[in-house]
Amino acid sequence: MKNRSTYILALLACMLATWGPTAAAQEPAYTWHDFVEEVSDDEYAEQEGWAEVMEELALLAARPMDINTATREQLRQLPFLTDEQIEDIHTYIFLHRGMRSLGELLAIGSIDARTRRYLSLFLRADGSVFEWPDTVSLRRILRQAKHELSTRMDIPLYYRLGYSYAPRDGGYRGSTLYNNVRYQMEERKHLSLGLAAEKDQGEPFRRNGGWDHYGAHLMVRNLGHLKAAVVGDYKMGFGEGLVVNTGFTTGKNSAMSRPSQGIRAKRSMDEVNYFRGAAATVDMGSMSLSAWLSHRRLDAAQGEDGTIKTLQTSGLHRTTAELDEKRQVGSTMTGANLSWKRQLFHVGATGYYQHFQHPLDPGTAVYRRIYPQGRHFGIVGLNYGYTHPWFSLTGETAYSTERGGWATLERLRWKVSNGYTLSASYRFYSHRYYSFYGSALSENSRVQNESGATLRLDAKPADQLTLTVYADFFYNPWPRYTLTHSSRGQEAAITAEYQPTGNDRLAVRYQLKRKERNDQMELHNRLRLDYTRRQGPWWQLQSTLQLHALDRSGRGWSASQRIRFRKGPGRLSALVSYFHTPDYQTRLFQYEPLLTNMFRYPSLYGHGVRFVATGLFALWQGRLRLEMLYGLTRYFDRQTQSSGMEEIRSPWKQDISVQLQLKI
After folding, report:
1. How big is the CA angle at 369 (ends 363 and 371), to the nearest 5 degrees?
2. pLDDT score, position 467
3. Which of 483, 485, 500, 544 has the CA that lies 20 to 30 A from 629?
4. How many Cβ atoms are within 10 Å of 582's Cβ, its own excluded?
5. Is residue 111 domain-shared with residue 231, that is, in the same domain?
6. Contact 413/442 with Cβ under 8 angstroms?
């Protein structure tokens, strides 16, 4: 008890320190950690692909684009920018012959203060636009290209049960270390080359062909009518994402809203949600044509008859059983997208055909009966829209051939005034519809077996106050996992951000959700309070309180304190959290300070304390960067953690990560 009281008193002392006097100095620059904390919430914490999207955004933030030379396709990589804002940026640059500083974004009415903060991470402004552009040549491209080589190693200071078993008994075949290696060559407008290799904890090295996963891409852009062409690993998104979207899924409370990003290179360590082959986009004035061909070997659990029971998506190959499932099934996919845009209108058609080496047979469990069966699958969709600065109507309707299912998503946005925007959406995803690469607004992880409607209000009643309110109603006609009947639910939330000065920010979010699990309705209440204060030009302090009440389990809560120090190229960050929840269902989520190109949004449950500290040290004018992370978790209510092969027979959990980056 004495130790617990010490932890709590130390935490409260740190939180009280936040309220100390502020040194009079210039406001520090907006950071990547600020961005992640603003856009992250529980809605995305367990969403498939969220970590990979944030990892790709971290890579973009590491090398900001020049706003004066960034193309529309490059700006579309930023999911918080709308088409209207992109067009307004290009119009301003054309009329004023470029931007001398990002401060000129204040002159663009469609870009609010929040978006300007986000853009400060991903864009820069220099005087290159005022010079006559050089002719495109391979020599000039290679001369202006930037190179980056990095490697990261995670070292756990604990031992999981899986390492104590021999491989023949189901134990892990590899070491406890995690390692990745990346090489990236990037020229701002025309060329991108990337190589990557990764080995997860527990995966063998020598007996697995070296690193477990390899990736590579070569991409060229903006060469005459050739808008983009890529060979190797790539991702895509068109329309509203019903047919193809291997990027971010738009959320109900999201500031991120762009599933349609076209073809782009894969830069993350994602081992599942991507394509491998070739793709290209040709610009034909008001029309553009994209085509692709992909072939991959997928992880799969097969039955005795050779049919595919489950497509594995963990990307882990640690045990003999997991290695036996590695790349067992070939999948070939080809498709195309034709888009037309004229002034305020746009229309596009997307379709693909996919063939599996072995037929899919997901089994007879009730919730799995709607999963796709067979070897041949075809999807076609039509997206459409009218976009005006004050009003927009967009949508997509798609059809899948395997069961003859339909899906549609419609969005409406009305800018009532400069400070108020109303939006609404309606979705209908038949239980017969299925797309292996579809990802769109939904309550569940699949674009299938769901209908719903969302209403949302974004308001700025005062210069210092921003409000977001939404309500969502959803219905699942086919029984979901853990249910024996159709189900329905509701969700509502309000988020308020008050920033009286440039040094202080208060954010409050309350969410209410009703959803069925195990044939019983559950009522979740979540509350999050954040107070951030900048202590002079180098320090930032943030205090956070979270509550999660579940009618069937009880109440969970956590209190945390963050401290950041940044001066020049160096950076130090620390987070300490005290949490107390009755069970896993009342878990809480928090974003932790991490290394560059690393993203994690873990859950806290039970009773304990969590501490994370990171440091960045730069040499050679910032070209050589060494980063280190130390993490510690101590549970007060248990002597073991996790279960099965992942079990840790200790209430303590400590780990270290080291990353080295070289930029040329």
Report:
1. 90
2. 93
3. 544
4. 16
5. no
6. no
**CB-CB contact of 407 with 429 (8 Å):** yes
Last residue of a domain, one of 112, 133, 154: 133
How far apart are the C-alpha atoms of 33 and 58, rounded to whole Å?
10
Alpha-carbon gap, residue 420 to 461, rounded angstroms: 8
In the prediction, which pLDDT does 417 show? 87
- In sequence order, the 6+-apart residues with CB closer than 8 A to the CB of 137 are none
- The distance from CA 488 to its chain's CA centroid, rounded to whole angstroms, is 27
What is the structure's pLDDT at 348?
95
Residue in the block written with tokens 């190797």 = 232
Asked if residue 637 belongs to a domain, the reply is no
Query: What's the confidence (pLDDT) of residue 48?
Result: 58
Tell me the C-alpha to C-alpha distance, in Å, between residue 310 and each of 244, 302, 359, 369: 21, 7, 11, 13
Shared domain check, 256 and 125: no
For residue 155, list its beta bridge partners. Answer: 656
Same domain, 251 and 384: yes
* Residue 354: both structure tokens together: 């996919």
pLDDT for the residue 166: 84
Range of the domain at 94: 31-133
Dist CA 340 CA 362 (whole Å) = 39
pLDDT of residue 248: 63
Q: Long-range CB contacts (< 8 A, 24+ apart) of 7-11?
A: 7/578, 7/609, 8/578, 10/576, 11/559, 11/560, 11/561, 11/576, 11/577, 11/578
Three-state SS letters, 450-517: EEEEEEEEEEEEECCEEEEEEEEEEEECCCCCCCCCCEEEEEEEEEEEEEEECCEEEEEEEEEEEEEE
Decide if 466 is inside a domain: no
Residues 263 and 367 in one domain: yes
Output the CA torsion sign for 370, 371, 376, 379. Answer: positive
Please tell me whether residues 294 and 421 are part of one structural domain: yes
pLDDT digits (tens, 9 = 90+) for 226-246: 999 999 999 999 999 999 988
pLDDT reported for residue 46: 59
Q: How far is the C-alpha of 467 from the C-alpha of 456, rounded, in Å?
A: 11
Same domain? For 114 and 250 the reply is no
Instruction: Please tell me the distance from the alpha carbon of residue 68 to that of residue 63, in angstroms, as a whole number.
Output: 15
Q: Under DSSP, is residue 195 helix (H, G, I), strand (E, B) or coil? A: strand
Query: Which of 133, 152, 177 is the last residue in one of the domains?
Result: 133
Number of domains in the chain: 2
Nearest-angstrom CA–CA distance, 196 and 661: 14
Residue 171 lies in a domain: no
Residue 122 and residue 236 in one domain: no
Beta bridge pairs of residue 251: none
Give yes or no: residues 345 and 447 share one domain. Answer: yes
Residue 26 pLDDT: 42
Residue 213 lies in a domain: no
